[in-house]
Design goal:
alpha/beta, 19% helix, 181 residues
């Protein structure tokens, strides 16, 4: 497994050692709780073939994230870690309602821990691409079409291919004018 993570969770020791952080540095084993209602990561497509969803970069956990109603394709949740570690991260991240699939045959993929309650694990990317629920989220993020198995992509200049199956509309580049309110 690769050591890359789609999300690098935590704050490195180097940052906690900065002079401005000296009086804020948590004790070893402490959990930092995000203020207010935290951060809700919802209705996203997270396609990270060849890597794990989360890489923890410090020994200090941060609580207050919620990941729900996302489409997630990755090699694994947190690499080749013990079941108790996966359960811990699932609780810490409050995963729920996610649609998950492994990046390729033989990968564990994000697993049920990442799908969470009301979520679903698909055996392959193709199976996920056949789900109307997953497709509704994919379309929210610019999905133009799903290639059939063996189909060669004929991409327009404003399209890009992800995981050899999903064709997305490229987002507009350059300055944009905001709509008046």
């Amino acid at each position: 497994m690769r050591i890359n993570g789609a999300f690098k969770w935590g704050i490195t020791r180097k940052n906690w050692d900065l002079p401005a952080m000296q009086d804020r540095r948590p004790e070893k084993g402490a959990i930092v709780v995000l203020p207010g209602t935290g951060v809700n990561i919802r209705h996203n497509v997270i396609l990270f073939p060849g890597g794990m969803l989360i890489k923890n970069v410090s020994g200090i956990d941060i609580k207050g994230y919620k990941m729900s109603d996302n489409v997630i394709v990755a090699e694994s949740l947190i690499g080749n870690r013990a079941e108790k570690d996966k359960q811990y991260w699932a609780a810490l991240m409050a995963f729920s309602g996610n649609f998950c699939a492994p990046d390729k045959e033989g990968s564990p993929g994000p697993e049920q821990y990442t799908a969470g309650p009301e979520g679903k694990v698909f055996p392959s990317i193709q199976a996920l691409a056949d789900s109307s629920d997953a497709l509704s989220i994919l379309h929210l993020t610019g999905l133009k079409r799903v290639l059939k198995p063996g189909e060669l992509p004929a991409l327009k200049t404003d399209e890009f291919l992800v995981a050899n199956i999903f064709v997305f509309q490229s987002p507009p580049a350059g300055p944009r004018h905001l709509a008046s309110q």
